[in-house]
Specification:
The complex is a heterodimer of chains A (417) and B (295).
Chain A: H1 8-37, E1 45-51, H2 58-77, E2 86-92, H3 97-109, E3 115-117, H4 122-134, E4 139-141, H5 147-150, E5 157-159, H6 170-178, E6 187-193, H7 199-211, E7 215-222, H8 230-239, E8 243-247, H9 251-262, E9 269-271, H10 281-286, E10 295-298, H11 309-320, H12 329-348, H13 353-360, E11 365-367, E12 370-372, E13 386-391, E14 394-399
Parallel strand pairs in A: 1-2, 1-3, 3-4, 4-5, 6-7, 6-8, 8-9
Antiparallel strand pairs in A: 10-13, 11-12, 13-14
Helix pairs in contact in A: 1-4, 2-11, 2-12, 3-4, 6-7, 8-9, 12-13
Chain B: H1 2-33, H2 40-58, H3 62-92, H4 97-119, E1 134-137, E2 140-143, H5 144-166, H6 168-178, H7 180-185, H8 190-215, H9 223-237, H10 242-262, H11 267-281
Antiparallel strand pairs in B: 1-2
Helix pairs in contact in B: 1-5, 1-8, 1-9, 1-10, 2-3, 2-4, 2-8, 2-9, 3-8, 5-6, 5-8, 6-8, 9-10, 9-11, 10-11
The chains are: A alpha/beta (417), B mainly alpha (295).
Chain lengths: 417, 295
């Protein structure tokens, strides 16, 4: 994933326009939503969503689409929201930050949708949230968890994940530090691509483990345009660490595993916070025989013991086929967005944007992503996500203990074992 | 540290062989047609997808798929020349660098879009039983796939040398590279040679694509990193020079791999420093000719 940071000038300009536009339009929105607040409107509740159905994030966008549509089907089968059937208006942004702006502008000002939900990735959430904020719309979003999203300082954003993305490694740190000292790794190598979704996570893990006495034998960052990683991996192999924390992002993660196998090095602990969490693409790319023992992290797991999770999985498999292991966490994140809306409606009797924003800023809300609450700018207050480990070719939650389906298994078995 | 550097040297040479296979095709296209083939990267990826499909759907070994992929890519290359370049050439009398750049960029974007639609944006990997195998010799690791890829590159580049130097077609190609007007006066059908030259250049991308898919995971966007490297290689080696492309590939592979053992951050930059230094001393590149092509 990539992100775009607005210049200060652009941000100030956007906020200035937002302030004026919001004054002019929130009154209109409030009036328009006034009837729905009483639950008396007869028409459908139209929710506009810009999704990357094609382009770089096409697979992720389609996963989100499945989650949104599953939620809408379920809600409609039970009478809709406050008696109104939910109608999703999903438009393709082709993974373009420019198109996201056009889509949300069009959904709000031309289609006059009642509500909007967010797109996938922080890259697209940033411009989307700004448009939504300009018109006073709540922006419950599934996958924009990077710092630049919350740096917008907008009050309409609500991330439907248990923790912001940079805390992805926290559950692993907590687990390692929960081990008796004799069982902890003695040495560690930290390797990461220079990417805002990878290197800060690795740096955070390194800082905490180093402070806890685990010796750093290698710390390296390589540029994202690095075509061949075998020499980078050779450095890790030469350092012979007990633990490798590998901040990869996409193809470099898959290539790293291939290089480890070829260079015949299998560390006792291997934590890959990003790529290894994909239950389908990761084993397909590196070979199922090579996944067991690898730790990763994510916000959702089919095996996590969370309220509603099993019902979601059963409905998902019934609608789309496959197994629980085939479910992309993004589908769960999108589904959780819908859950939040339904809970607000049930609790307040209103689906006006102002009510949603006000309601979500207080209390804790239960979803299949966990119990969520937010700070003023939309970052979830959660400490960490789930620590997962590949065990017997399956990705299972192993920490925190409350969410764990199995105990962690150490050391990592040798490749192909 | 010495062990690590030697290991990096081995990896760099083997990787350089794969780059040589890709870049010779690109420099050949430039030499014969004066076409800046910015689509070579995506053509490598197209071939990787073809090989992936033949392996995953029909169980054909990726190295064996080369027998099918190379002719298919030859046809693609000839098709690009006939459909996109020749019409401009005939309409305007000639085709400029800038025009070929834009044409090939459009071809690249088009192919990338089709691949994205056909295969989605998921990464693919050709995962054979030997894909992750390696030999250990005197403590150094040799990836089986990379060694085979290097051998394939040596074999195909040898055949290319024979084709260019020992056949009437090769003589016509070299004549077209050195002076297309004189070649035409001597009876060489330069338009035909250009189409066939494009086909040969793209078919080399075909061979390297199958190898690329074995070594690296890929998606349709993987071509962007490739094309910048390939362009750098052929500029370093000398535009239009096959020998230069091979030398440039090895320099790239070795320089990046060795520098990475000291600092991965500086590896890509190091190659650019080498490139700039060579161009300051020899603007035509290591093996390029100041005037015309130097096949």
């Amino acid at each position: 994933m990539r992100r775009r940071i607005l210049s200060n000038r652009a941000r100030r300009a956007a906020l200035a326009v937002s302030a004026v536009a919001a004054l002019a339009l929130t009154a209109g929105c409030a009036a328009a939503n006034g009837s729905s607040a009483q639950g008396s409107a007869k028409g459908p509740l139209v929710i506009g969503i810009s999704l990357s159905l094609t382009g770089d994030f096409g697979d992720t966008g389609q996963a989100a689409e499945r989650g949104y549509e599953l939620w809408a089907d379920q809600v409609n089968a039970h009478g809709g929201i406050l008696g109104r059937q939910v109608e999703l208006k999903i438009v393709d942004d082709t993974t373009s930050a420019t198109q996201v702006v056009t889509n949300y502008e069009s959904l709000i000002t031309q289609d006059h949708v009642d509500l909007v939900f967010g797109p996938v990735s922080s890259l697209l959430t940033v411009p989307g949230a700004q448009v939504a904020n300009r018109y006073g719309y709540a922006f419950i979003e599934p996958a924009g968890g990077a710092p630049n999203v919350f740096a917008l300082h907008l009050h309409n954003i609500f991330l439907a994940q248990p923790a912001p993305v940079l805390q992805l490694g926290q559950s692993f740190v907590d687990y390692i530090l929960s081990l008796p000292k004799a069982e902890r790794p003695k040495t560690a190598a930290y390797s990461s691509v220079d990417n805002p979704f990878a290197s800060p996570i690795v740096a955070e893990v390194q800082q905490q483990l180093q402070a806890a006495g685990i010796k750093t034998v290698l710390s390296q960052t390589y540029p994202s345009e690095q075509a061949d990683l075998s020499p980078v991996v050779a450095r890790v192999v030469a350092a012979k660490p007990d633990l490798v924390v590998d901040g990869t992002q996409g193809e470099d993660g898959y290539e790293t595993i291939k290089d480890f196998v070829q260079q015949k090095f299998s560390p006792k602990f291997l934590f890959m916070p990003n790529d290894a969490s994909d239950p389908v693409a990761f084993p397909a790319a590196v070979g199922m025989a090579n996944v067991d023992g690898i730790y990763t992290a994510d916000d959702w797991s089919a095996l996590a013991d969370r309220p509603g999770n099993q019902a979601f999985i059963a409905a998902y498999v019934a609608k789309y086929g496959g197994t629980a292991a085939d479910i992309d966490p993004t589908s769960a994140e999108a589904y959780a967005c819908g859950q939040l809306l339904a809970e607000v409606a049930a609790k307040t009797g209103s689906v006006s944007n102002a009510t949603i924003i006000r309601a979500l800023h207080s209390g804790t809300w239960t979803t299949i992503e966990g119990n969520l609450s937010w700070n003023a700018y939309g970052a979830t207050n959660g400490h960490s996500g789930l620590l997962l480990q590949w065990q017997d070719h399956e990705l299972v939650p192993v920490y925190p203990v409350a969410d764990a389906a199995h105990a962690p298994e150490n050391p990592k078995p040798y490749w192909g074992a | 540290m010495v062990h690590t550097v030697i290991q990096a040297l081995i990896l760099g040479i083997l990787t350089g062989g794969v780059y040589a296979l890709m870049s010779t095709g690109q420099t050949l296209v430039f030499g014969v047609m004066r076409v800046v083939n910015v689509a070579q990267g995506v053509l490598v990826i197209l071939a990787a997808y073809l090989s992936y499909t033949l392996y995953s759907q029909f169980g054909i070994d990726p190295f064996a798929t080369i027998v099918l992929v190379m002719p298919a890519m030859f046809a693609v290359g000839v098709g690009i020349q006939l459909l996109f370049i020749r019409p401009v050439q005939r309409h305007r009398g000639s085709v400029t660098f800038e025009q070929t750049l834009l044409i090939m960029f459009a071809v690249a974007v088009g192919i990338e879009g089709i691949l994205d639609l056909a295969y989605t944006s998921s990464y693919r990997s050709i995962d054979t039983s030997y894909a992750n195998a390696s030999w250990t010799v005197a403590g150094y690791t040799f990836s089986v796939v990379r060694v085979l890829a290097f051998a394939l590159a040596v074999g195909l580049l040898g055949l290319l040398w024979l084709l260019l130097n020992k056949t009437p077609f090769g003589r016509a190609v070299r004549a077209t590279v050195q002076n297309p007007t004189s070649a035409r006066l001597l009876g060489v059908n330069t338009e035909r040679i250009q189409a066939l030259g494009m086909g040969v250049g793209v078919s080399l991308a075909g061979a390297s694509g199958a190898v690329f898919g074995l070594i690296y995971p890929f998606d349709a966007n993987s071509s962007y990193d490739l094309v910048s490297r390939l362009l750098s290689i052929i500029v370093l080696g000398g535009l239009g020079s096959v020998v230069g492309a091979v030398a440039g590939s090895l320099v790239l592979g070795v320089a990046e791999a060795v520098v990475q053992t000291f600092s991965p951050v500086w590896a890509p930059f190091t190659f650019l420093v080498v490139l700039i230094a060579v161009l300051l001393v020899r603007p035509q590149g290591l093996f390029g000719s100041a005037e015309r092509g130097a096949l």
